[in-house]
Give the backbone structure.
Amino acid sequence: MYHLVETLRIVAILIKPAMEDTSCKIFKQLGIPENMQEYNTIYNFGKELKNIKVIEKRWATILKTWPRRRNKLHKRTNAKQNKK
């Protein structure tokens, strides 16, 4: 898992010029300190991030609410099919 977090950190650094908001969200969710969000830290793969803990558990929230979302989607789909 550590390598996954480190790779996502590097991806966020590389997309920062084009997608600044997205890269900021990635850094926030991964709990990456500001000093490790700079381009020159890419070369330190696996050396600096030792005590990183992922902050947001977005997927847990999505999975909890999935049955409600699925039911709403089915209702919309059925309503569209009945109109035809």
Remarks:
- The two ends are 48 Å apart (CA to CA).
- The chain has a mean pLDDT of 77.
- The chain has three helices and no strands.
